[in-house]
Amino acid sequence: MRHTLLIILTLLATSSFSQGNSKIETDTSVIETRYYKEDNYYNIFNELKGSKKTYYSEFYLDTKTLKEQGVFFDGNSVGLWKEFFKDGKLKREINYDKGLITFVNKKAYPFYDLQNKMKEKADSLICKMYGNSFLTNNTVWSVGGSYIYNDKESGNWTDKLTNKPTKFLFRYDVTLDNEYKYDNLIEFELDDKGIFLPNEYEEVFGFENVPNNLKGSFKLKYSDALLKAKSLGLIENDTTKAVGLLRWENFKKPNIINGQFRFYITIRTKTIENLVPNGRSSRTTKYEVYSFNPWTGDFIEKKKMKSIYSWEQMSGSGTGLIPDNE
Prior knowledge:
Elements: H1 2-15, E1 22-25, E2 29-36, E3 41-48, E4 53-60, E5 66-73, E6 76-84, E7 90-95, E8 100-104, H2 112-130, H3 132-138, E9 139-141, E10 147-149, E11 154-156, E12 167-176, E13 180-191, H4 222-231, E14 243-250, E15 259-274, E16 281-292, E17 299-312, E18 315-318, E19 322-323
Antiparallel strand pairs: 1-2, 2-3, 3-4, 4-5, 5-6, 6-7, 7-8, 9-12, 10-11, 10-12, 12-13, 14-15, 15-16, 16-17, 17-18, 17-19
Helix pairs in contact: 2-3
């Protein structure tokens, strides 16, 4: 199907080349072509209706040859992405689902060896803190969520900097039961020697202090946590269902040990809306939360939490889950 779509998209791009930007709607998709003449490329988005999937193709404008190809799901790169030179030779190949860069032309990306070395150090640090099997079975490197920096530049891991990167931000998705995946729950920074950089900012996590006898995998099962929560009073109905969330509780300290994993079984209990015409409105959703230690499977506590989403005509923002002390 992907090959068929590529042929269709190529024909569409060729036929609409002289017409400028265009949008075509069919029974199953919306196909949009955009031109960037100064940067010598044009791209095509084939957004499937009733789906969060979009097929993406990018072409060199002067040669009409394929430059990049891949799939977005809900706005994020997924699956296998390929980049090409003008002559059709492969430039780079990334598997976002597996967190692997399977091929890189090193002339095109001169700092790749350094980045790869830092990635190996990042993997080693996770092994040290959480165990080898945890890295293999419970994490997927977030290629799209990892970044590189130097004194004058910053970019995504897949960007090409002019000067050598000197700082590296790593993010990893974490799975529970080898089935439920939670995005970017491991975050930390290394310098260009592979040394961990303590960070006081909330968005850079650090690690949890896990006893050696617990390293290797989470002991908690989603189904066991849900059953335990129900035994402690959680009640579902036809319209309100429990949701499981793996969370990072941040200590907000500039240390390598700077938080802990907790698994929440949440159930919505109340929604309060404050609608302000021509102003900033808000919606507060309250939850009953059952917290578990995923390393041991032990129940920790039952607590109240809430999330607040506020919006106005041109903007909106949310808090995520926060303590509810009301």
